[in-house]
Amino acid sequence: MSTIDPFLYLYTILTLMAVILVAVLITNVNTFLYTKRLFEKLEKMEKTAIPNIPEERAKAPVAPVKEDRFFKLKEKNPEDIYLHGTIEENLPVLSDTYSLSSFTMATSDGLVISSTKTHPEEDAAKYSHLYNMNRQPDDPKTRLTGVSFRGGTVIGIMKSDTELPEGVLELIKRDISFILRKNL
């Protein structure tokens, strides 16, 4: 019968913990560098972008929006709409409810929480940067909203085939808050 040397056992555990910590550190550094490159790319794009002229947007025809459907949702309780157990299952429901082509939840520093898109990382970084600058995208079919949650801000990035009316943004904000409280 052999005995286990306690110093060898302790050394093995400490080595394993060190390897795990190094792996976590490398992952965090890679994420930071990726986000930094995206923000640098956005800054270059902003410097070369043509400034938005609000008068031209006001003259452009706006597609009609079926507001009746949205305002019926004001009377509905979010508990009756979002029946699923996870954020990933509830986002497609939110997207369908408001006729969105895509919806992404991100942190204020640009990390994706969840999305109906396959690759939302660039949108999350780009639009969280705009949101932090208190700006909306130039495209009227893309809207941003923020929801305070556990000491931070969760940013909702909504893309639609038509321009969303202001009242709908408040309903979506209400629903995002409900989904976050229910699932986190």
Descriptive overview:
The chain has a single domain (54-183), classed as Dynein light chain 2a, cytoplasmic (Beta-Lactamase). Helices cover 54% and strands 16% of the residues. The chain has seven helices and four strands. It has helices spanning 6-48, 54-59, 67-72, 78-81, 87-97, 121-132, 166-183; strands spanning 100-107, 112-115, 142-149, 152-160. A four-stranded antiparallel sheet has the order 2-1-4-3, sandwiched between helices. A hairpin with a 2-residue loop joins strand 3 (142-149) and strand 4 (152-160). Helix 1 crosses helix 6. The mean pLDDT is 81.
Strand order of the largest sheet: 2-1-4-3
CATH architecture call: 2-Layer Sandwich
Put simply, the count of helices is 7
CATH homologous superfamily classification: Dynein light chain 2a, cytoplasmic
Whole-number tally of structural domains: 1
What is the CATH T-level topology?
Beta-Lactamase
- Average pLDDT confidence is 81
Keywords: Membrane, Transmembrane, Transmembrane helix
Transmembrane segments: 6-35
